[in-house]
Amino acid sequence: MTRCVALLSGGLDSMLAIRVMQEQGIEVESLNFKTMFTCCQDTSAQAARALGTNITVIGQEDDYLDLVRAPQYGYGKGANPCVDCRIYMFERAYKFMEAVDAQFIISGEVVGQRPMSQKRSDLKVISTNSGLEDLLLRPLSAKLLPPTKPERDGLVDRERLYDFQGRSRKGLIRLAREFGFTEDMIPTPSTGCALTEPEFGNKVHDLIKIQLNDTRWDYDALNVGRHFRFNEATKVILGRNHKENTQLEYMHRMEDATSTSFLEPISFKGPNALVTGPSTDDALEYAAGLIHRYGHSVDGEDNIVQVMQAETEFNLIAQPTDRSAQDKTIASAVNLRPVGS
Questions:
Q1: What is the mean pLDDT of residues 221-250?
Q2: Could you give the domains of the chain?
């Protein structure tokens, strides 16, 4: 039995690539790659069930953040190191391929569909640098690319592969319908990765440029709240709802937390806040001012905020501060793009 490994994101392209192989009687083992920035595991599991294929989810290793910090092939519009990330995924897929005794790997990549990682030159770089070379088959664009080893060896019929290219989905949707995909099996386009989002990318670039000793905790914290840069050393994270307020309190108590203060309004309703970096008097006043701005402060009353640090607790009175001055600080205090909200 011929067997291949497929990278399955849950998107239409990867689903079609799998069905093309299944139509040729090839057994498919699906693999989904999970990082702290991806959000499509449920989608990929649903897609695997619809296609009748097993799915294995693997996570990032400690070295993944190294490529986010300094990708060899650069970033996209956000902080997305797409080429480096694809190489990283395929390197691990190669190990999985050997473990399940498969002969090759497939992906749903389409020539020219994504400008950051699917130009012909990018596809070649990914195949070469992942160590797969011509064991990596892209069924949807195979006729536009040199024959791979499974095609040359007769494991795959090249004539039953395709020549899709560009960003249009019309041909792909038509193929999906030919394969009998129902409307609910055809997902809307999505990268499934927060790093591609410009606002989130601003947070990542801010962290990389400023915090040289960043940790996984710092990157996990990027997924929570509004982020405000106070100065080159200090940032304030503000909860946007009850769930995020609870998350911030939990994250502050984690053993590897880099936050130095947790602030909570106790005499009025408002967001919780974390301070990362030195909790100077000015930084705490700034954080309390943000809580005042985004909270429901009471006119004529002392709006009290409790500050919790490693070995002490005390109260501050949150004072309104000039909004335009704060926004200027957020945007330009360290000569960075505004930190994404």
A1: 94
A2: 3-194 (3.40.50.620), 197-332 (no CATH)
Angle at 29 between CA 59 and CA 188, to 5 degrees: 70
Q: What percent of the chain has pLDDT over 70?
A: 92
Which residue is listed with tokens 């192989």?
21
Give the pair of three-digit tokens for residue 195: 């790093």
- Pairwise CA distance, residues 68 & 151, whole Å: 34
Residue with tokens 């999970």: 34
Helix axes 41-51, 12-23, angle to 10 degrees: 20
Smallest CA-to-CA distance from 206 within 219, 193, 194, 197 is with 219
> What is the spatial distance between Cα 224 and Cα 181, in angstroms, rounded to a whole number?
36
d(CA 246, CA 108): 39
Indicate left, alpha or beta for 31 from its phi (over 0: left) and psi (-120 to 50: alpha).
Answer: beta
The string of pLDDT tens digits covering residues 135-165 is 999 999 999 999 999 999 999 999 999 999 9
- Locate 32 and state its tokens: 């989904």
- SS3 label, residue 198: helix
- The reported pTM is 0.84
